[in-house]
Amino acid sequence: MPDVAWFVVRRLLATVLVMLALSLAVYLIFYALPADPARLGCGKPCTPDRLEQARHFMQLDQSTIQQYLNFLRGIVAGRTFGEGSAAVQCQAPCFGYSFPLARPVTTLILDRLPITASIAAGAAVVWLLVGVSLGTGAALRRGKLFDRAAVGFALIGVSAPSFLVGLLAILVFGFWLNMVPVNGYVPLTESPVDWAWHLITPWLVLATLYSSSYIRLTRSQMLEEMNLDHITTARAKGAGERRVVVVHGLRGVLVPIVTIFGLDLGSLLGGAIITEKVFSMQGLGELLLSGVGQLDVAVVVGVTLFAAFLVILANLVVDVVHGVLDPRVSHG
């Protein structure tokens, strides 16, 4: 088996094991909380008999290990809560069932995912372009005004809280200048223009915050890369400065950039909690917050695991890309 293929197989096996361990930890932690899902769904008056019926219907009267195995089985094959005509079906992949909302958690996640994915994908493109461009420019103009301005911008992005940047953006561009919408979301299928127009402010806010680390990383890596022997050799052979920077310089910077980009995007796809709250967008972050507020354990567990799986998946993709970009990684 080729080295890259064997590397991918090993990473896939490790990813499955990590997901299983993580799902067990998250499940046990949240279901050990004092909140009783059966009591919350029992209604009033909640007599001992009705509470027992609710526990049986929600399959909470079984052992913790059996409940966890049922949860894993639901992800693969779906689950059925209750019996007879009152039974509730949760089709695979079933991340649980929200009895307060009377909907499968997977359905709730898929309903909110387009909003979170729109925020994350657009912001990722902006912060990657801004971060790498400013970082490269700062490295090539070390000590000059451009370099100081880029480093200052990065320092502001690292220091400023996300909610503060978001509120300031709404205040200045939404209310004072009346240039952009201050809240809401328009689906891409309805109007691509309105979709982008409602997301432009969240994109810029997240890009301001996330691009800071890319500016600093790109600048430091580019300064090291431009002093290496292969750069000197390329210049000695008569290669233009643009070709030296883009083809030879940026290639050495790609590996660390890909690493943090994949992890940042994966974590943001799990829910931009503060950004969604500030801009009143009903994404995964808002779903998680509402689940915590209503003590809906199924929603909290489902969204948390889904977000964790996205981060682990992003980490897997990063490892595979590393193995392709740098064959030395696949031998490690």
From TrEMBL:
<feature type="transmembrane region" description="Helical">
    <location>
        <begin position="12"/>
        <end position="33"/>
    </location>
</feature>
<feature type="domain" description="ABC transmembrane type-1">
    <location>
        <begin position="113"/>
        <end position="322"/>
    </location>
</feature>
<comment type="similarity">
    <text>Belongs to the binding-protein-dependent transport system permease family.</text>
</comment>
<dbReference type="Pfam" id="PF19300">
    <property type="entry name" value="BPD_transp_1_N"/>
</dbReference>
<feature type="transmembrane region" description="Helical">
    <location>
        <begin position="115"/>
        <end position="140"/>
    </location>
</feature>
<dbReference type="InterPro" id="IPR000515">
    <property type="entry name" value="MetI-like"/>
</dbReference>
<feature type="transmembrane region" description="Helical">
    <location>
        <begin position="152"/>
        <end position="176"/>
    </location>
</feature>
<protein>
    <submittedName>
        <fullName>ABC transporter permease</fullName>
    </submittedName>
</protein>
<keyword id="KW-1133">Transmembrane helix</keyword>
<keyword id="KW-0812">Transmembrane</keyword>
<feature type="transmembrane region" description="Helical">
    <location>
        <begin position="196"/>
        <end position="217"/>
    </location>
</feature>
<dbReference type="InterPro" id="IPR045621">
    <property type="entry name" value="BPD_transp_1_N"/>
</dbReference>
<keyword id="KW-1003">Cell membrane</keyword>
<keyword id="KW-0813">Transport</keyword>
<dbReference type="Pfam" id="PF00528">
    <property type="entry name" value="BPD_transp_1"/>
</dbReference>
<dbReference type="InterPro" id="IPR035906">
    <property type="entry name" value="MetI-like_sf"/>
</dbReference>
<feature type="transmembrane region" description="Helical">
    <location>
        <begin position="252"/>
        <end position="275"/>
    </location>
</feature>
<keyword id="KW-0472">Membrane</keyword>
<feature type="transmembrane region" description="Helical">
    <location>
        <begin position="295"/>
        <end position="318"/>
    </location>
</feature>
